[in-house]
């Protein structure tokens, strides 16, 4: 993006090398001027110190007081006003106001006092030069102090200009922060509106369909004559699964409708499924016609909530895929609480029965279900592999490290 000349000028002034370049230029100008018009020792030292100190005015703003004082001393040592002294003195006054080293009123008062001292030194110099100097309170004596009045006005203008630039910069920064805050609030409101729209869509479409499944399954047990006990239990299992899905959906809708960061009573805190619910999950798989076995090795340990939920959801999705792609297959769910603080979860099947049909499951795992399982494993610092099993069929294996530094750090970050 092309920047304007004003922006390029502001960037150059804000550069760290700017004080050194300008201070060095004024110092070089003072040397040339003193060579062309030699002055006394006081004037020479005052001019050089006043110009050279400008190079540190940004890294150490109080040095600007030395700049102004040296300039006044240099001017007091000679009746001639060097250009370098005038430039460095004005820059020093501006820097004092810009960085607000002192209150502007104190800075102007100090400058006025210094100007008066310089004026008195000059009056004394004029009297020693046999110039007509009227006595105090005589006619025309007040004109002798015009110099101090003029210097005070110049100091006042430079200090006020620096203070005005500082105030404008602070206003610009505050305006930028307020604008950034407003944009963040607008984005948050847009995100909350989108979450609410998604919740409405889920409620209007999915919840209606799932509730109809539950009602029809329960009604079928009473309205369909001649049902065998197995068929009646099957309908009840369908209704129970639908009700469980409705509970999960209500929890999800509550999360979507709750503003982010809300910890009030409106936030739903329903317990999430854990590895203790795996027997129920396997039983549900059997109830819909699947053959499943649960094997647990190692001592049961209490894992962080994210690990428990991720492992449960991976097993749930793997069983769903087995029912979908390998109907009639024998499925085994293995959970190993490793001694090396590594939770290993395997879900394997022996492939679809002959004539049962099958869906396509690629070893690369490009389906949404496999992608979601990989994301859940990666969320807790683990990894997941899916592909053909060693004895045929399909194998999903997840390794979730729950005691490593990486895992615990991820858990702390997610809880924060």
Structure description:
It is a single chain. With 416 residues, the protein is α+β, with helices and mostly antiparallel strands. The chain folds into two domains: 5-183, no CATH class; 276-416, 2-Layer Sandwich (Heat Shock Protein 90). It has helices spanning 5-14, 18-36, 41-52, 63-76, 83-99, 104-128, 146-223, 229-257, 278-287, 305-325, 368-379, 405-415, and strands at residues 291-297, 330-337, 342-349, 383-388, 394-401. Strand 2 and strand 3 (342-349) form a beta hairpin.
Observed structural traits:
416 residues; alpha+beta; Heat Shock Protein 90; five-stranded mixed β-sheet; 5 strands; 62% helix
Radius of gyration: 42 Å
Q: What characteristic shape results from the CA principal axes? A: rod-shaped
Structure class: alpha+beta
How is the largest sheet built, in terms of strand order?
Answer: 1-2-3-5-4
In the predicted model, the low-confidence regions spanning at least 5 consecutive residues are 263-269, 405-416
| Total DSSP E strands | 5
Count of domain modules: 2
The helix tally amounts to: 12
Give the biggest sheet.
5 strands, mixed
């Amino acid at each position: 993006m092309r920047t304007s000349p004003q922006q390029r000028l502001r960037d150059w002034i804000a550069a760290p090398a700017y004080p050194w370049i300008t201070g060095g230029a004024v110092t070089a100008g003072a040397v040339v001027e003193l060579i062309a018009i030699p002055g006394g020792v006081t004037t020479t030292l005052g001019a050089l110190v006043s110009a050279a100190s400008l190079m540190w005015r940004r890294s150490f703003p109080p040095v600007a007081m030395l700049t102004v004082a040296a300039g006044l001393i240099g001017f007091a040592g000679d009746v001639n006003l060097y250009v370098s002294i005038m430039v460095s003195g004005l820059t020093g006054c501006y820097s004092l106001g810009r960085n607000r080293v002192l209150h502007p009123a104190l800075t102007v008062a100090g400058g006025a006092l210094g100007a008066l001292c310089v004026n008195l030194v000059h009056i004394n110099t004029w009297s020693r030069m046999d110039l007509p100097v009227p006595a105090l309170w005589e006619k025309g004596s007040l004109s002798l102090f015009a110099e101090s009045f003029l210097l005070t006005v110049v100091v006042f203008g430079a200090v006020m200009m620096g203070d005005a630039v500082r105030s404008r910069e602070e206003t610009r920064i505050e305006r930028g922060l307020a604008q950034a805050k407003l944009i963040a609030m607008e984005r948050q409101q847009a995100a909350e509106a989108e979450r609410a729209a998604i919740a409405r869509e889920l409620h209007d479409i999915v919840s209606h369909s799932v509730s109809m499944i539950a009602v029809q399954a329960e009604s079928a047990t009473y309205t369909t004559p001649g049902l065998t006990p197995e068929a009646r239990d099957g309908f009840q299992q369908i209704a129970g699964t639908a009700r469980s899905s409705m509970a999960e959906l209500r929890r999800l809708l509550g999360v979507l409708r709750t503003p982010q960061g809300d910890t009030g009573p409106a936030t739903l805190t329903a317990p999430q499924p854990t590895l203790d619910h795996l027997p129920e999950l396997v039983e549900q798989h059997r109830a819909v016609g699947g053959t499943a076995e649960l094997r647990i090795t190692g001592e049961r340990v209490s894992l962080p909530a994210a690990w428990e939920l991720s492992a449960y959801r991976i097993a749930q999705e793997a069983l769903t895929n087995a029912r979908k792609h390998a109907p009639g297959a024998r499925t085994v769910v293995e959970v190993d609480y490793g001694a090396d603080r590594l939770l290993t979860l395997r879900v394997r099947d022996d492939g679809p029965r002959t004539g049962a049909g099958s869906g396509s499951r690629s070893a690369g795992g490009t389906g949404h279900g496999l992608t979601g399982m990989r994301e859940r494993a990666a969320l807790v610092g683990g990894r997941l592999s899916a592909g053909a099993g060693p004895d045929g069929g399909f194998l999903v294996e997840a390794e979730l490290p729950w005691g490593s530094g990486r895992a615990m750090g991820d858990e702390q970050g997610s809880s924060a």
